[in-house]
Design goal:
The chain is mainly alpha-helical and 202 residues long. It has one domain. The longest helix has 85 residues. The chain is rod-shaped. The two termini are 27 Å apart. 6% of the residues are buried.
Amino acid sequence: MCEPMTIASLAVTVISTAVGMMAQGQAQKAQEKSAKAAAAYNAQVAENEAATQRELARAEREKGAADAERQRRMAVRRMGEMRSNLAASGFETDSGSALSLLGESAAEEQYDVDVIRRDADMAAWQREAAAAGADNERNFALWQGSRAGGASGMAGTLLGGIAAGLGQYNGYARTAAKKTDGMQNALNLGYKALGVARAGGY
């Protein structure tokens, strides 16, 4: 049988564990609520960033198209002026060196238009890559929010309390066993000193 002090100590351990679980449960709820709110906020920020980057990508393409068209029109005008100047100078613009010059100039003008379009496409691609990264951040934030909380903390408190209670009980049991062995040894020594043999060979 357990001694009264053993039972009282075990009861204190159980009560302490229950109180600890309640306190930890309240703290975990508050922490879970805070974590979910932070995750939702981060997800919204990332979603807004993705939308902004996609809008900027669209603007880059529109600007690139407009700049390229402006460059093309300027090229057409310059080519027309060059053709007129060559003709006014007596050159045949449909053959010979004048035609070669016009062809080279036209290729350079087209190159400038292509560079503008390529730069616009690259800028838009970078914006779209940033939007994809923001989408990933949003999904990760939502995942973190779904993983917030859990009963692992309270389970640890409960297991810790049970382990503490069992440890105390085993400690009391060992102490009681030592006391019993000590009393038995003292009795045996007393019987031997008196020269009295006990039943069982002592």
